[in-house]
Amino acid sequence: xxxxxxxxxxxxxVISAAGTALAVLAARLVWGREAALAALxxxxxxxxxxxxxASRRYxxxxxxxxxxxxxxxxxxxxxxxxxxxxxLEILRDEINKLTIRLREQAALLQKDKSSLADALADISHQxxxxxxxxxxxxxxxxxxxxxxxxxxxxLRESGRMLSKIEWLVTALLKMSKLEAGSIVLxxxxxxxxxxxxxxxxxxxxxxxxxxxxxYVTGAEGKRFxxxxxxxxxxxxxxxxxxxxxxxxxGSLSIGCDENPLYTEIVITDSxxxxxKEDLPHLFERFYRGENAGTDSFGIGLALAQMILAxxxxxxxxxxxxxxxxxxxxxxxxx
Length: 334
Prior knowledge:
The protein is an alpha+beta fold.
């Protein structure tokens, strides 16, 4: 019944029948009865052949239309069947490409949704501890029995907790943006000497208070390629980690080297070193090692690795030969 609902097929059938009648009539008038019979047989053969060919073609079109309908309304993406060479095969290939692209886009959207949910869960989990401490401090400050010195101490601790919360939320949002690919890192040639002077600037007061020293060697004349602001964020996180494990009166050294393959920064602290069981997990998000401090969230090194991985750079952790933890950052030139 589909043939009679198909206007193109009906029109072609009518035209074929009319052409057959005209051919038979013309052959009868010009050449006689035998010619008319031959023309009728040839026309019937052609019509049967065309009818079979058209039926098969429209059947393939209906199959393709059914698969497209399944794609639009079904729960799963259908696998398109292969047809003969020709227009239908080309159309099938293009629809198949579109289907693959839609499937990839759906997977990316689902990944972004999962990443956002994970980030929100991480933020809510990690922020709970400093918020609890902040609430306890505020309750203590409400007491009329505490003196002014104790109140000032509680205010300083409250400010410290708020700074921790701000840093935690900011770091997690940066990680989420990097994972979602919404941040495009810019490439520029960076002077190592100037870069490291700016990298250690935020830690100078804390190092002076705790009598910690920092030495930079080999930075003169060295250069590397990367995004200045984001690379600064990564290297400062590694320096911050090294200073946390450097005891009061200790030192942190930053050595630089360059060769035709890469430019390297080596950051070595004078702390107790990294336990062997912690080495494989240092760059995992929220991992806190055996010697981790109470203020550590375990995301600084994870953020640093995420940034460096997007800059054709790698970071490795090990123990220095003379003791202490050591991090090697290599910016490759190709």
